[in-house]
TrEMBL record:
Keyword DNA-binding included in the entry's annotation: yes
Organism, scientific name: Halococcus hamelinensis 100A6
Matching Pfam families: HTH_3
Keyword DNA-binding: yes
Keyword annotations: DNA-binding
Protein name (database record): XRE family transcriptional regulator
One GO MF term attached to the UniProt entry: DNA binding
SMART domains: HTH_XRE
Gene3D superfamilies, alphabetized: lambda repressor-like DNA-binding domains (1.10.260.40)
Amino acid sequence: MNNVVPEYREYHELSQGELAAAVDVSRQTINAIERERYDPSLELAFALAGFFECQIEELFSPE
Protein backbone atom coordinates (compact mmCIF):
# COMPACT_ATOMS: atom_id res chain seq x y z
CA MET A 1 0.00 0.00 0.00
CA ASN A 2 1.34 3.43 -0.94
CA ASN A 3 1.10 6.30 1.49
CA VAL A 4 1.91 9.97 1.94
CA VAL A 5 2.31 9.84 5.72
CA PRO A 6 5.87 11.26 5.58
CA GLU A 7 4.68 14.27 3.61
CA TYR A 8 1.83 14.98 6.03
CA ARG A 9 4.15 14.50 9.01
CA GLU A 10 6.80 16.82 7.60
CA TYR A 11 4.18 19.42 6.61
CA HIS A 12 3.03 19.49 10.23
CA GLU A 13 6.68 19.69 11.38
CA LEU A 14 6.48 16.51 13.47
CA SER A 15 9.13 13.93 14.18
CA GLN A 16 8.28 10.26 13.82
CA GLY A 17 8.34 10.02 17.60
CA GLU A 18 5.90 12.89 18.04
CA LEU A 19 3.47 11.38 15.54
CA ALA A 20 3.84 7.97 17.15
CA ALA A 21 3.02 9.40 20.58
CA ALA A 22 -0.01 11.21 19.18
CA VAL A 23 -1.53 7.98 17.81
CA ASP A 24 -0.20 5.72 20.59
CA VAL A 25 2.23 3.53 18.64
CA SER A 26 6.01 3.19 18.58
CA ARG A 27 8.30 5.34 16.46
CA GLN A 28 9.36 2.13 14.73
CA THR A 29 5.77 1.55 13.62
CA ILE A 30 5.61 5.00 12.02
CA ASN A 31 8.97 4.38 10.37
CA ALA A 32 7.77 1.04 8.95
CA ILE A 33 4.56 2.62 7.62
CA GLU A 34 6.48 5.46 6.00
CA ARG A 35 8.90 3.03 4.34
CA GLU A 36 5.89 0.98 3.16
CA ARG A 37 7.15 -2.09 5.01
CA TYR A 38 4.06 -2.30 7.19
CA ASP A 39 0.39 -1.73 6.39
CA PRO A 40 -1.38 -0.19 9.38
CA SER A 41 -4.43 -1.75 10.93
CA LEU A 42 -7.73 -0.12 10.07
CA GLU A 43 -7.82 1.32 13.59
CA LEU A 44 -4.37 2.90 13.14
CA ALA A 45 -5.25 4.21 9.68
CA PHE A 46 -8.33 5.91 11.19
CA ALA A 47 -6.19 7.31 14.02
CA LEU A 48 -3.69 8.79 11.57
CA ALA A 49 -6.43 10.25 9.38
CA GLY A 50 -8.14 11.68 12.45
CA PHE A 51 -4.92 13.21 13.69
CA PHE A 52 -4.26 14.86 10.32
CA GLU A 53 -7.97 15.73 9.90
CA CYS A 54 -8.22 14.09 6.50
CA GLN A 55 -9.78 11.04 4.87
CA ILE A 56 -7.96 7.69 5.01
CA GLU A 57 -7.92 7.72 1.20
CA GLU A 58 -5.84 10.91 1.28
CA LEU A 59 -3.11 9.10 3.26
CA PHE A 60 -3.23 5.58 1.79
CA SER A 61 -3.85 4.12 -1.64
CA PRO A 62 -3.64 0.57 -2.99
CA GLU A 63 -0.56 -0.27 -5.01
